[in-house]
Amino acid sequence: MGYRTAGYRGKLTEFFGAPCVRLQENGLRRNTASSCTGNIKAVEYRMRATRAIIHLENLQYNIAQIRKIIPAGTKMCIPVKADAYGHGALKTAVAAIRAGVSCLAVATVQEGIELREAGIVAPILSLSLPIPEEIPAIVEFELTPLVVDEEFIGDLGAEAHRMRKTVPVHLKIDTGMGRIGCWPDEAIPLAKRIAKEKNLLLEGVATHLSVADSTKPEDIAFTRTQLELFKTACTAIREEGIDPGIVHAANSGAVLLHPDACFDMVRPGILVYGYPPDDCLAERIDIRPVMELETQLVAIKKVRAGSTVSYGRIWHAPEDTWIGTIPVGYADGLNRKLSPGLLVRIGDQEFPIVGRICMDQCMIDLGPDPWVQRWDRVTIFGPSPARTSAKTVADMLETIPYEVTCAINKRVPRVYVGDEYADRKPLK
Ligand SMILES: Cc1ncc(COP(=O)(O)O)c(C=O)c1O
Q1: What pLDDT, on the 0 to 100 scale, is given for residue 421?
Q2: Catalytic residues
Q3: What does the pLDDT look like over 295-313, one tens digit per residue?
């Protein structure tokens, strides 16, 4: 592993107080800036017809829009877990830090290690529970885990002591999500247990809201109950003479619907990536999708009426028509269920995907007299809310945009545009 920081955040108690002060070159370790700014040649060589264009200007716009609606001075922690919801964790993290975000959140220790190894020095919260074998890496790579039980607190404290480091931890309280977290009445004993560990620092207290994006009265009432339980637990910790540190609860839904859930820090994810967590909240904030999935027409050929296209012969040409092939398939994250139904766009015209989506390719019906040409760009979903977006695709699949962008996997190169550290200008 070999990662050693020269105490990149100095006194641990300071790093949230002045989160970016210690960041060199906007959150990058000085000697690794080039690995974060990207090597343009390498990006070009990784190029293939199918790519996800990541509009960092939209990401930064969304962060600014969120900042406008949260109380002044509230810190922002941006989840870059699951490769930043499919957008690419490293470049997203750098763009977010450059937009003033003070903290990042990952789901796995490995995700945190990758950011550290790439040069990110900003605080990294690890939101899911690790297994005991991951504890040394948490300490070594200076991640900030959520803690929920005595066993883990003890093991982490011992490892921190062995490595002679102080590890900041956030106590996670389960107020109704039913996932991870201690029960509210366990918060005081656990806060005391953390305080006893010389090499641990209770830096924050958190909870997670399960229906914060819903406007149904019963869901609003449930969120209010969660928030009351959480506030009571934080107050009780304070009354024991223990500083709970950074108090945080708000995901995207809470940022939009429950302003009093913002506390000291918010953790909005999907809003940053340009989608409201629920349709009913779309009017509450002006945000722009960040990911655009595009490809190119690699082949065009004429087929006779009655011919069939793709596996299973489920599509028959109704007339003589031209079929275009695009090199994107379910192995890239384009769900098979999107055919029939999904329309892709070339210029201003939309064309249907026909026949089964294959692992690496699929076909589109260009009609009997197409104006399009081989190598034309084909947009599968884009950043314009008025056109097909990840939300349209999600609706077709009866899922949520989160799953659509996360599904676009590593075989699809990400091309970053719209920020000084981007790879290059958008393709036109
Ligand atoms: C603990 C936690 N906080 C915040 C978020 C961000 O949620 P959202 O993307 O809905 O804002 C997530 C997402 O899954 C999460 O698990």
Answers
A1: 64
A2: 81, 311
A3: 999 999 999 999 999 999 9
Q: Ligand 1 center to residue 30 CA distance, Å? A: 30
Q: Is 269 in the pocket of ligand 1 (CB under 6 A)?
A: yes
The pair of structure tokens assigned to 171 is: 């106590």
pLDDT at 3: 33
The proportion of the chain whose per-residue pLDDT surpasses 90, expressed as a percent, equals 85
Q: Which CATH class is domain 291-417?
A: mainly beta
Q: Kindly state if the Cβ of 251 falls inside 6 Å of ligand 1.
A: yes
Q: How many whole angstroms from 40 Cα to the centroid of ligand 1?
A: 32
Mutational test site, ligand 1, from 81, 146, 177, 208, max ligand atoms within 8 Å of CB: 208
CB distance 230 to 173 below 8 Å: yes
Is ligand 1 within 6 A of the CB of residue 81? no
Task: State whether the beta carbon of 181 lies less than 6 angstroms from ligand 1.
Answer: no
| Whether 328 contacts 334, CB under 8 Å | yes
- Residue 271 has which token pair? 């809003």
Show the tokens assigned to 77: 């922690």
Range with the poorest average pLDDT among 23-27, 227-231, 319-323, 417-421 = 23-27
Question: Which residues of 84-186 form beta strands (DSSP E)?
Answer: 103-106, 124-126, 144-147, 167-172
What are the extents of the domains in the chain? 12-46+56-284, 291-417
Residue 329 has pLDDT above 90, yes or no: yes
Contact (Cβ atoms closer than 8 angstroms) between residue 185 and residue 232: no
Tell me, which fold does domain 12-46+56-284 have in CATH?
TIM Barrel (3.20.20)
Please tell me the distance between residue 81's alpha carbon and the centre of ligand 1 in angstroms. Answer: 9
Q: How far is the CA of 359 from the centre of ligand 1 (A)?
A: 31
